[in-house]
Design a protein that fits this description.
alpha/beta, D-Maltodextrin-Binding Protein, domain 2, 6-stranded mixed beta sheet, 4-stranded mixed beta sheet
Amino acid sequence: MKTHMWRVICLILVGAMVLAACAPAATPTTAPAPTTAPAPTKAPAPTAAPAAAKTKANIVHYYSGDLGKKSMTELIDGFNKSQEKCEVVDNTTGHEDFKTQILVMLAGDNPPDIFSYWAGARVEFVEKAGRLMELGDFWKTNNLDQVIVPGIQSAKDYDGGVYAIPQNFHFTGLFYNPKVMEKAGVTEMPKTWEELLVAAEKIKATGVTPFALGSKNRWPAQFWFDYLVSFSAGHDYRAKLQGGQASFEDPQVVKAMELWKTLVDKGYFTKDANAYDWTDAADQVAKGEAAMTLMGTWITGYWDGNKLKAGTDYDVFPFPQIDPNVPKAAFGPVDAWAIPKDAKNADCAKALILWFLKPENQKTWALGQGALAASSKVDPAMYNPVMKKANDYVASGYKWIPAYDLSTPPPNAEVGLNMFAQFMNDPSKYKDYLTEAQKASVQAFAGLK
C-alpha cells in the first residue's frame, strides 16, 4: 500500500528536476620556495580544546516571500544562537515550488530534517506513504496537549499516530474596506446570504466592485467553493465530497456553483480574476477599487506591512449564513511541522519545534506572518483589533475545517483547483466543468487504492 502510494506521488512529480550540488574543487597553487629554517623558539602555552562543532540540521519551508520570511529568519537565527549542539540551515523555497519540491526531496535518499506542511490531507498523503516520523512520545513528553490550542489539536492525528505539530492557524473570512462600506451605506455587516446580496448591490451602485479575487494560482478561489458547498449542503456532505463518496455532479454541488455563478453574472466579482494574485486582490480592496475579499488572516500581515491600520483601513466579518441549520464554521489552514522518517538529525528538529512554540516566539511569528498562534500560552492582547476579532470567532465555538486543497488527497485537490480556475474564466460552462471534474476525481481516487 505504502509503495503504491509513493508511486502515485512520483507520477505527480513527472517533469520535476532534482538538482545535486557539487562541492567546488580546490584551486591548485604554486609550491612556495624553500626558506631558511627559523631559529628555535619556546613551546607555546597550552590552549583550550576547540569547541565541538554543532550538528547541522536542514529545514525546508514555504515562508519565502515578504510575508513571513523576515520573522522565520529571526526565529531560526535566535535558535542557532541559543543552542550548543544544533545549528539549523535554512533552505527556503517558493510557496508554489515547495508543493513539488518537498515531495521530490521526501522521495529521495536525503530528506530534510524538518519541513513545514499544511495539516490535513497533505500530511496524511505523505504519512500513508510511510515517509513521516511518528511523534506521539514527543507530544506526550512535552505536554503539548497543554500547549496547543484545543480547537486545532486534531491537526496532529493520522492513522492513530502523531505526525504533525501545529505552528499556527488561520481564519478565513470577508476582509473589507470600512470606508467603502460606509460610502455604500452598508453599516451592518451581512449575516445571511440575502443580506450579502443586498450589500453587494449597494456597493456596485457606487461604482466599486463588491468582491476582489485573485485566482491566478487557483487556490484563492477555493474558499468560495468551500463556503458555498458546506453552508448550503452541510459540513458532512462536503466531507463526503472531499473523500470521494459524493459527486461533483450532485445537486448539492450544482446548487453551490449556481450561487457562485449568480454573483459573477451580476458583476460582483473582479473581471479577469485569473490574471491576478491574492495580493493584487488585497491591493484592490486597500485602494477602494473593491469592497472586500474572501481570504485568510495572513492578509492582515500583508496589509500591516503596507502600513494599513487594523479596524480603520480594514476589518473582517464571517462568511454569511446560507442555511440556518448548518453550524457556524470557518475554513483555513493549520501550518505545521513534520519530521521525515529518515531524518538524520531528528533531535535538533524536535528542539527547533519546541523553540517555535515558546510564547515569545509564537508572538513574533504571529505578528510577522499575520497568523493566529498555535500556542494557547500566548496572550490574545497581542493581536491587532481585526486579528483579535478572528481569534474570538474561533474561540466562540466556530467549527474549524481545513480548506479544500487541504482536506482531500493532492491528486483530487488538483481536480478541484483546476475546475475553480475554469469557472472564473467562463462561468457559463460550469456544468461541463463539473462533469469533467467528476471523471477526473474518480480516476484520482482509483489511483490511491
